[in-house]
Amino acid sequence: MEEIKRRILILLTEKGLNVSKASGVLDIPQRTLNRQLNEGGSVSMELIRAINRYFPEVSIEWILSGKGEMYNGNNESDSLPKNVSPYYNSVTVSAGVRDTINDCETADAFVSIPGANADFYFPVVGTSMQPEINEGDIIGVKKMESFTGLDAKRVYMIVTHDSRFIKHCSTDPQDDGTIVCTSPNYHPFTLKKDEILAIYDVVVKISNV
């Protein structure tokens, strides 16, 4: 993350911008930009997208990984890579109080995994899904637009008003408005669909073992 900040500051210097001027160019509040670049905050996906939008000639691959040159002159390559997703080390999955995640929240790092199609990455706490998913593993999740096609063999991340957890999920055969949540080390329970703020398919697991 510090290297990403350093490269963004190099870019701003190259453009003749300080944080105050860059704030106006990138349409990001000066306080937010200063916190992310100079006060120990983490670079947000909002800032990365702003750089991609207002400086299309700049290589986002260079910003995120340091690979290649600052300017690559290739419009297709300059676009934000689709396989780069934010990783929230401080936002754990299993239990929590955060409602949901969006790309304007501050990420701790950015993850690029060839072939992966995850929106976000999170560390796992708790043991309810062992041995399939262990504490300390990292999961990548992809948001689902509906509950259609829930597969009881797959793992999903459920976000409600007061919790966030991963479970096997399926629609209750007796009630289409309810899902059944199961895991190897926890008693099955049901949850009304209208209580769920978002549901994500767990599409990537990175083992901590």
Description:
The protein has helices at residues 2-14, 19-26, 30-38, 45-54, 60-65, 75-78, and strands spanning 84-87, 109-112, 120-123, 138-143, 155-160, 164-171, 178-183, 186-192, 196-206. A hairpin with a 3-residue loop joins strand 5 and strand 6 (164-171). Helices cover 24% and strands 27% of the residues. It folds into 2 domains: 2-81, 434 Repressor (Amino-terminal Domain); 86-206, Umud Fragment, subunit A. It has 209 residues and is an alpha+beta fold. The strands form 2 sheets. Strands 3-4-9-5-6-7-8 form a 7-stranded antiparallel sheet, with no helix packed on it. Strands 1-2 form a two-stranded antiparallel sheet.
Shape: elongated
**N/C terminus separation:** 24 Å
Strand content: 25-35%
Task: Quickly count the helices.
Answer: 6
**What is the averaged pLDDT score?**
82
How helix-rich are the residues, as a percent range? 10-25%
Q: What's the Cα radius of gyration?
A: 20 Å
- Provide the low-confidence segments as ranges: 95-100
For the largest sheet, list the strands in their spatial order.
3-4-9-5-6-7-8
Structural class: alpha+beta
**CATH topology description of the largest domain:** Umud Fragment, subunit A
Order of helices and strands: HHHHHHEEEEEEEEE
The domain tally reads 2
The CATH architecture of the largest domain comes to: Ribbon
